[in-house]
Amino acid sequence: MANTLGNLGVYLRAAREMPLSEFVARAATRIPGLDGPWLRRKIALADAKGTDASRMSGFLDRLEALALEHTGRGLGIPGARVLEVGCGPLAGFAPMLFQRGATSVTAIEPDWNSALFQHRNVDDVYLARVAAHLGAPTTAASLRQRLDRDLTVLKSGLENAPTEGPFDLSLSQSCLEHVRDLEASALTLKRVLAQGARQAHLVNFGNHRKRDHPFETIYEMPPEAYHARFGRHINLGRPPDVARAFAAAGLDVMVIPVDRNEASLANVALHPWWAERYSREELAIRTAIVLSRT
Ligand SMILES: C[S@@+](CC[C@H](N)C(=O)[O-])C[C@H]1O[C@@H](n2cnc3c(N)ncnc32)[C@H](O)[C@@H]1O
Question: What's the CATH number for 53-292?
Answer without folding.
Answer: 3.40.50.150
